[in-house]
Amino acid sequence: MQVEYRLKEDGDLSVQIAGAIRDAIVAGRLIVDERLPSEAELAEQFDVSRPTVREALKRLAAQNLIRTRRGASGGAFVNRLRFEDAHGQQITTSTLLLSMNAVDFETACEARYALERACVPLAAARRGPDHLATMRAEIHRQGQPGLSDESFCASDVAFHRALVDAAGNPVLSYQLAGAVEAMQPLMNMITFSARSRARILALHGAIADALEARDAARAEAELAALAAYTIELADDVRARRRARAEAAGGAPGTGQ
Q1: What φ, ψ does residue 167 adopt, rounded to 5°?
Q2: Per-residue pLDDT, 254
Q3: Is the domain of 102 the same as that of 198?
Q4: What pLDDT does residue 95 have?
Q5: Per-residue pLDDT tens digits for 16-29
């Protein structure tokens, strides 16, 4: 394997080497299970030190693009990247984008529910008994007395993850990993203090019932109702915060 790439002197060499090898994998010049040249061969090819090559290979391994094996028949090999393996990266990236760019609640909520609604017709047609069992189990868990807010939020995410997976489309599941598992916890964190668990349980139950009946239109309507309730909760939380701030600002002795 010969990776054609001219390194730039003013950039991180290990990043550039990792990028060149990644591009070769994406383009199909390196195929699944193919053995990469040794560290020494790569160092000679790119005219860099072996530690620089080693760092590049670590970057590729962290992205699950390659795997290493010790021994006489060992080395670095091109990995078969699975959608499941990439979920974690998608979630991390989405979480960072939301936090670093201060995406407002309405924007995140709009995107998250628009994406999930796209899964509903497929989920209604393709859901299996395991998907329904997972959703029912999470609904039961959410109704348990004494369940902490943190556990309720985790169960909420698991319920919606099952809905997405019921669509039976790994590309959609991967794309929605960030929406459900990054955006949903953010929305839960904002609204948990104001929401009615009973109302959410009722909406979750109605969604599960509609999917079990393969009624896509009813499932979409119930999901839209859940989205509207989520926005309502956020508005309520903000109104309460403004009221508290105004009360504190106008209280005697505050110097205002």
Answers
A1: -65, -20
A2: 44
A3: yes
A4: 74
A5: 999 999 888 888 88
Give the span between the Cα atoms of 229 and 235, in whole angstroms: 10
Q: Stretch 170-176: mean pLDDT, rounded?
A: 84
Distances (CA, A) of 209 to 131, 162, 203: 12, 14, 10
CA distances from 194 to 190, 223, 234 (A): 9, 19, 8
Q: The CATH number of the domain where 192 resides is what?
A: 1.20.120.530
Residue with tokens 């039976």: 168
For residues 67 and 101, membership in a common domain is answered with no
Q: The domain containing residue 62 runs over which residues? A: 13-78
Whether 66 and 169 map to the same domain: the answer is: no
Torsion of CA 118, 124, 127, 132, to 10 degrees: 100
d(CA 108, CA 98): 8
Contact 26, 57 (CB under 8 A): no
Question: For residue 67, what are the β-bridge partners?
Answer: 77
Q: Does the predicted TM-score (pTM) go above 0.70?
A: no
Tens digits of residue pLDDT in 137-163:
999 999 999 999 889 988 988 999 999
